[in-house]
Structures are given as C-alpha cells and as structure tokens.
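Handout, section 3.2

Students often ask what a structure token actually looks like in practice. Rather than define it abstractly, here is a full record for Nucleotidyltransferase domain-containing protein. The first block is the sequence as you would receive it.
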Amino acid sequence: MVIDEIDTTSLRGALADRLADAIQHRWAAEVQAIGVAGSIAHGDDTDSSDVNLVVVTYRPRTGPRSTLRKVDGVPVDLRVLAAEEALAEARLLTARWPLHADRYMHTFPLHDPKDFFKELREAHQNLLTEARPAEFSQLARHNWAIANSARQRAVRLTQWYDTDAALVTIAEARVHAALVAGFLTRTWFRNQADAVKRTGVAAADMLELGAILKYQADELAARGRPVDGTLGALFD
C-alpha cells in the first residue's frame, strides 16, 4: 500500500510529525532527510504500533543518536545513519534481506528536500534487478541451516522437559524458515510476525516444521544449493 500523506490525526502520526520537527530544529545543519517506516508508512498503524523514524545525516556520527524508547506512551524506534551508510546498506543483499527490504522500499518522507528516500528506493531496486538467483539461494541456505539447527535444539530441549527454552528456540526456527521462503520467492516482509504469518509457519509444531524444512532442502538442492555435501563443497 502506498500513501500520499501520513495521518497526523492519529497519536502515532502526530508524534512522528512532532519528532521530525524537533529534529529539524535542533540538528538543521546535520540532517539531510527524515522519514517514517513500518505501519505508519503503510497507512495501517494501530494503537499497538511503534513509530519507526529514520533520520539520514550528511556525515557519520552526527545528528541525534539511534534509540529505542517510549515517548508520550508510544514506542519509538529512532534509527540514525549517514546517507552513504544508508545507500551502502540498500545496495547489499544480506541474510536478513526479507526483513530489511521494506525500509528501503517504503519509507515515507517527512523532510526530504533532495529526494533521498527516492534515491534509496532506486538503489535497492537496482540491487534486486542485478542480483543473480544463486545469491538468493545461497542466503536461503544460510537461513535454512539456522532454522534446522534451532529446530533440532528445540527437539532436545523438549526431551529434557525444558519447555520454556524449547518454545523460544522453535520460534527462532520458524522465523528463519520464513526467511528461507522469502529468499526462494523473492518476497520481503514487514517484520518477523508478518514473515511467519504470510509463509504459514506461525503455528507449525516441530513435526510440521520438520516437513517444511525437508521441502525447502529439496528445493534448494534443485536450485544447485544442497544443504548437505562433502567437505570440499563447504568452500564453494
């Protein structure tokens, strides 16, 4: 969903607007652009939503500090980085790409006189256009290994009757299985909850998750990225 403007009649939209004004006033010479990401940028924020504010500075280590805290009862995630750092991130395909792409593609500008967020989006679109299928498969396999290891630990923890630890570990396995699906289909997500929900692993128990990982392993093998192999293959 693409919005034309944020809803400043809502508590979160109004707070984002106030924060942007305060930052512009205090760090006018250091700040190049300010935007809002997440649910506010998508126009579907609720009373439980955070304010995800992105501040882009001209130079590193200037402007406000990145922080995570509440303001007037609303959780605020303030992310600050220099323009070149932001562009470098947008041009890099990482193992967390399905959870990070939305910030490059859907940051709504609150203060952006030089169209920085448009440049950021175009940089990421160019990356996706130029990236080879093998790069996505390689990162999918990386997440598969994490998901499979977490699932195996959860099984052992259950056998040892450590249910609380098993629940935490199986949740980790579900997230990384969702990231595998994201890489295999070139799909990005809003957050971890969105990832596990949209990929159908949110309620998967250990047996179901095992079947999902088996399917993903077969798919990776078909794409030339088997999850198991010889010692020499480890360095390919």
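Discussion prompt for tutorial groups: The first helix runs from residue 11 to 26. How would you have guessed this from the sequence alone?
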